[in-house]
Amino acid sequence: MLIDCSFGQTTSHDVADINMVHNANLKMRNCIYDTLVWTTTYHADWAKRLYKEDDGQTFEVHKTDSYDVTIERDTSIVRGGGADSSLKMTPSSRVGKYCKVSSSGEQGEIVRGTFKIWLQADVQKTINIYIKGYGWTSFPDATTLFLRASYLSNAGNANRTEIDSDEVISDNINFVPFQVTLTPARTGFVLLDVFLGKYEAGAHINIDIDTSNIT
Question: Domains, the chain, ranges and CATH?
Fold first, then answer.
């Protein structure tokens, strides 16, 4: 992990200040640079990740870059009554129905837990995560944009069950509640991720990070 570092601020580099190559993962906090290049190696390009906290040495500018998606904190698009920022997901042209990306910054449909909610056993709950579109002319359907929840489904072990939402966005104006209803068999964390499997130039989604909408 790099902390309080600067690249390309006193020396100009010919190619880039940071060059992300095969299977590289880098975490940075309060670092600044001018240029970034994703070098294609034809081997596990999707595995490259650059996690940036206080990016550009600017407080609360958080961003995750990968070959497939850029995820960043957005304070310009927020839901009324929700959080004071949203999670903005911008897919690359590599993303599609069979090459989805998640709000955790990973490729593939494995739940990793962008949001974690502690729920009691044997109590049915409906969880709402609000999502808004931006710049879409052909909107994602329920198979290419959905909320997935992973919950403890056996009282005697750590087995989990995954369920998906079936709501869709139909405009670029409103935040839409994507919901899952579940009854955990054991007390513990429910893991939530939003998956996107559609690309359109200039389009992205915003996710309200408020996780208190539980009934």
Answer: 1-67 (no CATH), 74-215 (2.60.120)
